[in-house]
Amino acid sequence: MEQQATQPRRVKTRHIILAVMCLMYFISYIDRVNIAVAGPIIRHEMGLTSGQLGLVFSAFAYPYAVMQIVGGWLADRYGPKRVLTVLSLIWGVATLATGFAGSVAMLVGLRFMLGVGEGGAFPTATRAFTYWMPVAERGFAQGITHSFARLGGAVTPPLVLAVVATGGWRDAFILLGIASLAWTVLYLFVFTNSPEQHRRITPQETAEIGYHVGDCDRAKHCATPWRKLMHRMWLVTFVDFCYGWLLWVYLTWLPSYLKESRGFDLKQLALFTALPLLAGVIGDTLGGTLSDKIFKMTGRLRFARCSVLVVGLGGSLAFLMPMVSTANPVTAVLFLSASFFFLEITNPVLWTLPLDIAGKYAGTAGGMMNTGFGVAGMVSPVVFGYLIETTGSYNVPFTISACLLAVGMVAALFINPLNTVDADEDRERTEAGSLGGIPAFLQSAPGLRLERHHLRRPLRWRK
């Protein structure tokens, strides 16, 4: 008995897979934002104009937005293991090859290729959790993975600059490309599409997950219910757009705002730019954990998801407005950090909703949801910059961002994760009789004969 008690606890297979996915989010986000850090050096070395550098920056966003639904659908259809392997190879090769780029056209092409690879990655990763994470752990899984993404964004400047200082900007891309390809190998060895395919899984853990043998294979033969998914996901997509609008402001305009509007020098800029991003790391982890905790305590899934969305968007709004009006630069950074903390509380819940609502179609649903973020990425930085140029101030674009947070907060109240596609399909199967949906009492009625008119689709009854 004493020997049994001293034995170390066995790490659960789903937690190993979760750790591998966290590493993917971390690496992929560094690959995404490293161009912003190396951009000034690349511009100087290649003699690029501001317009050419802007073209290189924007080449990522458009395939990224398009690949959201495409990548998610492919994961639903062919399985996340195969699809994410291909996607990670694409973005790994693109990152590696960027280190050998010699022209603007090649840089644009490789950033476009990176957008293709990473565009479908997060929806595919969401689909990967469908059969590996129980309902009560989905919020935590999405929170911890996205916190690693934010952590990747926070460590990119010092990490990339350290490599650039010792070997040049090309070495930074080559090393990151090798890291991405190494992750692909790790993923191939560790991940399987379902628990029943994994050699390490135990019956006890399979029961904890709630997986039933054959669920994964049956899902492959199901046609994607596009209309049902759009009907249930459009509101989540809209809320994600409101969330993504402000997030893109942080990712693109924060350094410029702190320098131009708040007067920080370059040394201060490195610290004060990282603070809000680090606050987002905590917010991501806390948001998913909090939602799961509320669900375990109350058993009310809708309350657990919607309450965190409302608190997150409302809290971000509450700190964004005084940030605009305060005169103290350090206080403004603290308000920005608090606002971003609450904003990121909503992120894991938004990514959990496709799992709750769509189940085996979570890849497609996750792509639909994150399309809102992709569209915000195409619009928000441009509109924000235009408003700064026309008004000469950051106050107006930040106020518009605050208004979108308020609209998103109201919209979040109407999201219902209990209105699931699986429940709808089960109800239709139950209601449908053996004669194509005929009620059972009519099937047994004597003297009735069913015929289909040769010119019309509706069924006709004759005695």
Automatic annotation (TrEMBL):
Membrane topology: Multi-pass membrane protein
Entry-linked PROSITE patterns: MFS (PS50850)
GO cellular component term, pick one: plasma membrane
Alphabetical UniProt keywords: Cell membrane, Membrane, Transmembrane, Transmembrane helix
Domain Major facilitator superfamily (MFS) profile: 17-420
Keyword check for Disulfide bond: no
Segments traversing the membrane: 16-42, 54-74, 86-108, 172-191, 233-251, 271-291, 303-324, 330-353, 365-388, 394-415
Primary localisation category: membrane
Compartment(s) of residence: Cell membrane
GO molecular function: transmembrane transporter activity
Protein's name according to its UniProt entry: Putative glucarate transporter
Lineage: Bacteria, Pseudomonadati, Pseudomonadota, Betaproteobacteria, Burkholderiales
